[in-house]
Amino acid sequence: MGKIANTIHGLKPAMMMVVVQATMAGNSVFYKLASSIGMSLSVLIAYRFVFDASFIVPLVLLLERMERLGLGTMIGKAKVAGTLMCIGGAMLLMFYKGAELNICSTNVDFLHHKGGHVVTLHPHDSNDVVGALLVVFCCVSGAIGLIAKAKMIQDYPCVYSSIALIMTMTAIQAIGFALSTLHG
């Protein structure tokens, strides 16, 4: 049983890489769907990085604060429990009797195009080689970025803060790029 556990433990990085690649493939499908209904890809990517940063920054602040609380002690656990109870109570009072929230419509028509905006695809474009080279460049640069992050995490003492900083700067750059490429 020990050999199996060691083998599975050794396969964890490879399994996580498969999960990450499957998630990225799902993202690509959603990007294709969004672009086929007319959304600008630069705006979509800016939204993605803004949502990433808005999720990761509070999480980082919470995790690094929890590390300082000393969760191994009873006092640290009591502080966290009290905070969660207060936040939970405030959320209960806020959401118990409120107005109905209609955040988005439910009449989304994925790729059926019965009237409205239709994206035309060119059967064979002369940019196939350039597209293939850009895909290879994207994969290589993504791998180099992951290697650089791994090296940085070994040397930088605040792991979560560095990731939050990277995500925030990426969001700012993506917003700048989206604003500069929009026409009209």
From TrEMBL:
GO molecular function terms attached to this record: transmembrane transporter activity
Keywords, in A-Z order: Membrane, Transmembrane, Transmembrane helix
Superkingdom assignment: Eukaryota
Transmembrane regions listed in the UniProt entry: 12-31, 37-63, 75-96, 129-147, 159-179
Keyword Transmembrane helix on entry: yes
GO cellular component, one term: membrane
Chain coiled-coil ranges: none
InterPro entries linked to this entry: WAT1-related
PANTHER family: WAT1-RELATED PROTEIN
Protein name as annotated: WAT1-related protein
Organism: Camellia sinensis var. sinensis
